[in-house]
Amino acid sequence: MVDAPVVTVRGEAYREVPPELARFTVTATARDRDREATLTRLAERAAAVRVLLDAEGPAIDRRETGDLRVRPETARSSERVVAWHGSVTTTVAVTDFTALGELMLRLADQDQVEVAGPWWSLRPDSPVHREVRHAAIADALARAREYAEALGARVTALVELADAGVERPMMARMAYAAGPGAGDGPPELDLDPQQQTVQAAVQARFAISTPVLG
């Protein structure tokens, strides 16, 4: 018995969609010759950051505090401590982009606070990923049918389907813009959410009917 002929194709899909999350980090720092004074200042600055974040309510999707560091600064060629450095970083994920720039500026306006970001992304469970995978499978089936029709045949069955990889490059783009009356009021920060590229690819093998050649 002759095995049914098989056509092997690659299906691909590509989408550009708006981001769903923006992440940024807030780092409060302190330095003093006295260790206790350093820790006290660090705690006060971290608490001020927390108060500002608490005021945002549901606009903040998630926040995590980590990377607490306290280290001594020593004199050259000596273990004598001349100062203490402390820092604590909070990672914030925001879903409301309309207030993002204002929030980042308010945080950056705090004493000895550094703000970095934003980094744009989709949620891990975003339905966009599923939609793109389905589109890649549909593309593979369409290609297989085109090849089969060119041979005077038709697709009869799926033999094998494999994920050929998914790429989701995430980039950040930030722009600063001074609003009307710049210098007379608080600065304004306009952020341009970076479109997210979502790609999916599959390898598929389809059985086809006997081609009509000649």
Automatic annotation (TrEMBL):
Domain of life where this protein originates: Bacteria
Gene Ontology biological process: DNA damage response
Matches recorded under Pfam families: SIMPL (PF04402)
Gene3D superfamilies linked to this entry: Protein of unknown function (DUF541), domain 1, Protein of unknown function (DUF541), domain 2
PANTHER family named among the record's database cross-references: PERIPLASMIC IMMUNOGENIC PROTEIN, SLR1258 PROTEIN
Protein's recorded name: DUF541 domain-containing protein
Native species: Micromonospora globbae
